[in-house]
Amino acid sequence: METDLIGLIAAAIRRERERAGVSMSELAKRAGIAKSTLSQLESGSGNPSVETLWAIGAALGVPFSRLVDPPRPQVRVVRAGEGPVMHSEQATYSATLLASCPPNARRDVYRIDSQPGESRISDPHMPGTVEHVVLGSGRALVGPVDEPVELLPGDYVSYAGDAKHIFTALEPNTTATMVVEHV
User: Fold this and answer.
1) Which residues pair with 174 in a beta bridge?
2) Which of 30, 35, 95, 128 is 20 to 30 Å from 78 by CA-CA measure?
3) Cα 123 to chain center, whole Å?
4) Which strand (E) or helix (H) includes residue 182?
5) Could you give the CA distance from residue 113 to residue 124 in angstroms, rounded to a whole number?
6) Which domains are seen in the chain, by residue range?
7) What are 3-46's pLDDT values in tens digits?
């Protein structure tokens, strides 16, 4: 992960923790991570996985994007291969934040790149979260863990993000666009 992204994440975690008025120990407990891990992340010496950042965001009651999105200019172009990328520890899966929700909006946009193998199983996000996925290439099983839907390029699915859900690439170089809608 890029050094400037790690610094941005460190500052964002510290800012959001202080805004929430919780101690490092309390946040680590709520997120289910070691206090030493949180300390490393806040100091900029850690390299967080997407699962760790989702857990911290959920524990703070903030969208994942608030922890990884740099300040944005008036016009923003994210070229293929650019943007803050978070990698899964569970699967060959990465999520690139393309756009986070501006103040008073409630959505984030991600580009997903995934390979066949282990499924990316996501724990429930904040209550009321809805995910929208449009498959760009390949083939994938996407949706609630107990009833995922097979998608082909151009197919769309929407499902509750506040319940356990899955993304499984069925073909090499599977890509998708995901919009996470926060209530």
Assistant:
1) 114
2) 128
3) 11
4) none
5) 21
6) 3-68 (1.10.260.40), 85-181 (2.60.120.10)
7) 678 888 898 899 889 888 999 999 999 999 999 999 999 998 88
Residue 126 CA to residue 38 CA, distance in Å, equals 20
List the structure tokens of 21: 């008025």
Give 23-38 as a DSSP string: -HHHHHHHHTS-HHHH
Per-residue pLDDT tens digits for 127-152: 888 899 999 999 999 999 999 999 99
DSSP summary character for residue 128? T
* CA distances from residue 9 to 21, 38, 88 in whole angstroms, order as listed: 18, 11, 16
- Ranges assigned E (strand) in 119-160: 120-122, 130-137, 140-144, 149-151, 156-160
Q: How far apart are CA 123 and CA 144, in angstroms?
A: 10
What the block records as the tokens of 30 is: 């709520």
Q: Whole-angstrom Cα distance, residue 39 to residue 24?
A: 7
